[in-house]
Amino acid sequence: MDFELTPEQRAFRETLRAFVDKEIMPVATEWEHSGRYPTEIIEKMKQMGLFGLSVPEEYGGLGADMVSFALVFEEISRGWMGVAGTIGSHSLACWMIARHGTEEQKRLHLEDLAAGVRRTAIALTEPGAGTDLQGIQTRAERDGDFYVVTGTKTWITNARHADPLPVLVKTSVTEPAHRGMSVLLVDPATAGFSVSRDLPKLGYKGTETCEVVLDHVRVPVSALLGGVEGRGMQQVLGGLEMGRINIAARAVGVAQAAYDAALAYARERTAFGQPIADFQAIQLKLADMATDIQAARLLTYWAAAQADGGKRVDMEAGMAKYFASEVALKAALESMRIHGGYGYSQEFVVERLYRDAPLMAIGEGTNDVQRMVIARSLVSGKSKVGW
Ligand SMILES: Cc1cc2nc3c(=O)[nH]c(=O)nc-3n(C[C@H](O)[C@H](O)[C@H](O)COP(=O)(O)OP(=O)(O)OC[C@H]3O[C@@H](n4cnc5c(N)ncnc54)[C@H](O)[C@@H]3O)c2cc1C
């Protein structure tokens, strides 16, 4: 059994760490509170090739393995989770196009997306349907060589920058729901397409999350992902394993940042004539945090390594996402307690971590849904717990 990263993965992590420490950490708190978009950081991420993480090398991407993919989201989220959001849904959409797109669609989009010249996102959720994607209302009706698309999507991260925007639509209302859905790669310059507003959020600043309106948008049939109707649900669900590893890794990064801040503060802050780190009550919190974070990290790398081994990892990725996001929530709160009153101040990083952590329990399927996925996998006999 080998719990080590490969030399390449270790070198990649060191590069990421140096980038996060130098370019993200010093500005994150200030930019977050001033509502400044992290343009310069995004430009550097483009130069590092991070927009091409999930794009195969033959289309100009890094074609990263899943463990390296997790390292990117962990390290960037240690600095600023919102910035990880700018490449999160982008990477998932790139993966979907690379995996399911026609050769023409890959040639048309992947090179630009890998370079960050154009960016992308994923539009699944609607005002009336999130977990229950079969309940979406966005319709695409065939009219000659076009689909006419009408509907509203909400909570779409990066929608303002997406070109194309993959949109989950209903192409049939007579087929069973899961077979009546397709993904269309929508060009945002098409008449009737608009990003109607940015949604105000608790945290996850530094990346916009938007409402998108499609009003009789004419999408050419050539933009149907994979060229065959009715595969949308399958295409989207295939990406969820990757999405859950992404969220698990972000949670590990946020939890690590909360722990790092707590340890540094506890060593520095004195009360009753000694550093508060000398009090056993503080030490117990630090020990619990460190243990939980290491367990979450192992679960995340394990799910990623299993995926790299070519396995379906619905249960493993679900476990990692569920556990790591709960650890992030707990670590942010414990770090805040250790900071005392300063933990409630916007001048300390823990306040941002406390607002960012809950998203990981919601995004890519709520944690209750993860628990149902895990249980289903176990009860059906598809997966077992053990080594
Ligand atoms: C900041 C942010 C960014 C996002 N970015 C994107 C994005 O880029 N693209 C995108 O498409 N979506 C995005 N989302 C949407 C996100 O994926 C959904 O919010 C999430 O899937 C949950 O859906 P919902 O909000 O409609 O909640 P609902 O599905 O309405 O769930 C509400 C509650 O009911 C529970 N529930 C639902 N069904 C069941 C069930 N069968 N059994 C038991 N409990 C159940 C849930 O666990 C939850 O507690 C984003 C959301 C946020 C907050």
UniProtKB/TrEMBL annotation:
One Pfam family matching this protein: Acyl-CoA_dh_1
Annotated keywords: FAD, Flavoprotein, Oxidoreductase
Domain of life where this protein originates: Bacteria
Domain Acyl-CoA oxidase/dehydrogenase middle: 121-217
Entries under InterPro entries matching the protein: Acyl-CoA_DH_CS (IPR006089), Acyl-CoA_Oxase/DH_mid-dom (IPR006091), Acyl-CoA_Oxase/DH_mid-dom_sf (IPR046373), AcylCo_DH-like_C (IPR036250), AcylCo_DH/oxidase_C (IPR009075), AcylCoA_DH/ox_N (IPR013786), AcylCoA_DH/ox_N_sf (IPR037069), AcylCoA_DH/oxidase_NM_dom_sf (IPR009100)
Residue intervals of the Acyl-CoA dehydrogenase/oxidase N-terminal domain: 6-116
Domain Acyl-CoA dehydrogenase/oxidase C-terminal: 230-378
A GO MF label: flavin adenine dinucleotide binding
Known cofactor(s): FAD
Family: Belongs to the acyl-CoA dehydrogenase family.
Protein name: Acyl-CoA dehydrogenase
Source organism phylogeny: Bacteria, Bacillati, Actinomycetota, Actinomycetes, Streptosporangiales
